[in-house]
């Protein structure tokens, strides 16, 4: 089946079966993308789903979109589907739905109201010393400890007026959702939100190379890592999760996910006080910051010589400015504890300090903005929004370029590799072309014209850089008039060096001077507040490049 040039679009909510049309559309897309990776069960599902009567298809999708896999049939009553029993019959016959499944107490309890428990299970409650007035959670706790086994609803509650069914292909549907979205935090409701206009996305052309997974093993590895992380969040013992952790993966995307899980497991070990175990896990992780935490574990264990050796290795090729900042603090401590000569220190230029006393308000940043703003030199509270937005508008085509493995489906606000180290290098030529426009201030291909065109053409589309509600035309035009192209280039290049760290920490306020064609940035600190590390890095960067920047310390008037 040839792959369509663009992914499926949401069906209209005016159609009562919109959710079924969306699911069918997703299935067609999956079949076009992943037919070569399907296993026998998935091929069987695709073969037989379209042969089911439409009410059965619709009810299946309704159940897929609901929480859990076990349902009361009296709560599967949808006007557009009709009789639940009629719709369920073909699904039961095919084995995709189990009728009257065996249920544990913990599976039974969510299906019943407290009144139904009191009415139909009063004998069971009495036998275990419970009354109808007990809390439902307390009842469940007592009965779970009694280990009553699993029984059909017809055994638990013979007088119940409804039936229970259980889907037997939910794991398969979860795999299809994973293949479609490339993750398990998005679900089929994305179609609905898109049709409602709640969220609108850039339409990126896709090809078979765009799919999230190129090998069947990668699908299993992702699902396995996801399950391990859920177990960690559920409080399962760390040792049990480590025993089940997949080995290192050649796929960089999956190895990054594995590295993040190792990082989380290491943090859990650290919280338990198991510093040596934590240090070993950090050493195995490729997640940003893992080496820094490993250094901290060595230092806390008084392994200062080992820590210095690792710190020297990190200093030769720091993974980020954040790590460089950490090393600058660590070296003096290690040298002192090892009785070595203190390391040389490069003093960063300090920004101008302002001190101000203002009447107390809810927002110290807005108070300073109101105090400094005037008609000829307006002040805007922009924080990270302005520079990120200008970058996102100028480089839109590079950010949304249809590179292999970057866009999997129609509901992405950014490429999948946005926060990975290779994000900029994979698009080096595209970003170079975008940034070259900064050398051309005017004309159709100048950066101002490109930013304006993108602003109007893409307004409202989801973006990891552009927060539309924070950028109106007045602010945009003021920025284009007053911010030098050379400074824009420096900011944008710094963003590209480390998107994860550098798209935050920018100064709170910006004051424009349109008559002079200039500006200044202002970082605001209220009483008791202090600069965060990412803010210090931005301030030092701006100071190194002679960008006008003040740090304003505010005291409240008594």
Give the helix/strand layout:
Layout: H1 18-34, H2 40-49, H3 54-64, E1 70-72, H4 84-94, E2 97-99, E3 102-103, H5 105-108, H6 114-120, H7 122-127, H8 136-145, E4 151-152, H9 153-156, E5 164-167, H10 170-181, H11 189-196, H12 216-233, H13 238-243, H14 252-271, H15 275-284, H16 290-300, H17 304-316, H18 321-337, E6 352-358, H19 364-372, E7 379-381, H20 385-394, H21 396-399, H22 423-426, H23 428-436, H24 447-458, H25 473-482, H26 485-497, H27 499-502, E8 509-513, E9 518-525, H28 533-544, E10 549-556
Helix pairs in contact: 3-4, 12-14, 14-15, 15-16, 16-17, 17-18, 20-26
What would you note in describing this structure?
The chain is built from 28 helices and 10 strands. The protein has 558 residues and is α+β, with helices and mostly antiparallel strands. The protein has 3 domains: 18-177, no CATH class; 211-337, Serine Threonine Protein Phosphatase 5, Tetratricopeptide repeat (Alpha Horseshoe), CATH 1.25.40; 352-556, no CATH class. Strands 6-10-9-8-7 form a 5-stranded mixed β-sheet, with helices on both faces. Strands 1-5-2 form a 3-stranded antiparallel β-sheet. Strands 3-4 form a two-stranded antiparallel ribbon. The longest helix is centred in the middle third of the chain and has 20 residues, at 252-271. Residues 1-6 have low confidence and may be disordered.
């Amino acid at each position: 089946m040839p792959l369509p040039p663009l992914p499926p679009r949401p069906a209209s909510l005016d159609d009562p079966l919109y959710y079924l049309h969306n699911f069918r559309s997703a299935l067609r897309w999956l079949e076009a993308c992943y037919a070569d990776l399907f296993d026998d069960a998935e091929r069987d599902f695709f073969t037989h789903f379209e042969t089911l009567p439409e009410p059965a298809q619709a009810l299946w999708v309704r159940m897929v979109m609901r929480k859990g896999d076990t349902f009361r049939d009296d709560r599967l009553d949808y006007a557009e589907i009709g009789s639940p029993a009629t719709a369920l019959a073909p699904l039961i016959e095919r084995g995709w739905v189990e009728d009257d499944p065996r249920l544990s107490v913990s599976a039974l309890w969510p299906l019943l109201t407290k009144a139904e428990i009191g009415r139909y299970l009063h004998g069971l409650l009495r036998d275990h010393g419970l009354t109808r007035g007990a809390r439902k959670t307390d009842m469940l706790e007592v009965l779970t400890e009694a280990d009553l086994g699993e029984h059909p609803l017809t055994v638990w509650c013979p007088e119940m007026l409804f039936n229970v069914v259980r889907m037997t292909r939910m794991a398969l549907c979860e795999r299809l959702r994973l293949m479609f979205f490339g993750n398990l935090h998005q679900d089929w409701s994305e179609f609905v939100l898109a049709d409602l206009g709640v969220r609108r996305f850039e339409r990126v052309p896709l090809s078979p190379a765009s799919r999230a997974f190129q090998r069947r093993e990668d699908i299993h590895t992702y699902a396995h890592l996801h399950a391990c992380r859920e177990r960690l969040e559920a409080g399962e013992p760390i040792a049990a999760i480590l025993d089940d952790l997949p080995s290192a993966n050649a796929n960089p995307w999956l190895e990054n996910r594995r590295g993040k899980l190792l990082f989380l497991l290491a943090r859990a070990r650290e919280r338990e006080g198991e510093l040596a175990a934590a240090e070993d896990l950090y050493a195995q992780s490729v997640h940003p910051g893992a080496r820094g935490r490993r250094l901290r574990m060595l230092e806390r264990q008084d392994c200062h010589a080992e820590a210095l050796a690792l710190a020297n290795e990190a200093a030769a090729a720091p993974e980020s400015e954040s790590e460089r900042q950490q090393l600058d603090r660590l070296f003096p401590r290690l040298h002192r504890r090892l009785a070595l000569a203190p390391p040389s220190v490069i003093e960063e230029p300090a920004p101008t300090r302002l001190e101000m006393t203002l009447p107390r308000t809810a927002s110290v940043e807005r108070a300073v903005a109101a105090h400094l703003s005037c008609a000829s030199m307006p002040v805007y509270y922009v924080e990270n929004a302005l520079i990120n937005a200008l970058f996102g508008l100028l480089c839109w085509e590079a950010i949304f370029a249809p590179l292999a493995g970057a866009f999997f489906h129609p509901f992405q606000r950014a490429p999948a590799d946005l926060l990975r180290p290779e994000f900029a290098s994979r698009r080096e030529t595209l970003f170079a072309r975008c940034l070259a426009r900064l050398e051309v201030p005017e004309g159709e291909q100048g950066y101002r014209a490109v930013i304006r065109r993108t602003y109007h053409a893409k307004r409202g589309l989801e973006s990891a850089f552009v927060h539309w509600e924070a950028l109106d035309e007045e602010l945009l035009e003021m920025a284009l008039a007053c911010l030098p192209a050379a400074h824009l280039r420096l900011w944008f290049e710094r963003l590209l060096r480390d998107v994860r760290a550098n798209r935050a920490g920018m100064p709170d306020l910006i004051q424009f001077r349109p008559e002079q064609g200039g500006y200044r940035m202002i970082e605001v600190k209220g009483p008791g507040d202090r600069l965060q590390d990412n803010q210090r890095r931005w301030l030092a960067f701006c100071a190194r490049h002679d960008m006008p920047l003040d740090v304003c310390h505010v005291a409240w008037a008594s």
